[in-house]
Amino acid sequence: MSGAKRDEDTISIGEHWNEPVRFTIEIVKDGNCRAGHNAGQEFAFEWNTPKGMCSEAFVGMYPVLHSLRVLGDMRELGSEKRNERTYTCPSRVIQFRIVAHYTCNICGCELDIVDGGIRSKRLENPDENLWIRVCDNCFDRYRDKILTW
Ligand SMILES: [Zn+2]
To answer: Read out DSSP for the chain?
Structure first.
């Protein structure tokens, strides 16, 4: 086979990109805090930093966020759920409950976690070393397309 790929035969990740992990964080324990955090305060974010969060706490929890982004299983660290972790700030005062939500790379719907596994399918293009995690619907819709950046 040769010739240019037609648009209808391809799906471009760049055009459809949806961040595959988003975070919600709730403060579950407060105390004397320079950043003014209070119990019940919530943050929701994807790739960018959460506005208003203590910078030292964010830097301190970043390894947890990164681990969750690459599907690290928090049960290995003693959490009850693979996608949740409680983090205590560097001053040992404020506690944050971090929850990772895994989403379809195309449509953004939340992927279920079943028996500790993230329920998803994989669209891939081995020739380009590209792959994404998608929901059942997007898999059925795009499975015959060629994945491109
Ligand atoms: Zn989808």
So the answer is: --SPPPGGGEEEHHHH---SEEEEEEEEE--S-TT---TT-EEEESSSPPTT--HHHHHHHHHHHHHHHTT--GGGGT-SSTTEEEEE-TTS--EEEEEEEEB-TTT-PBPPEETTEE--EEEEEGGGTEEEEE-HHHHHHHTTSEEE-
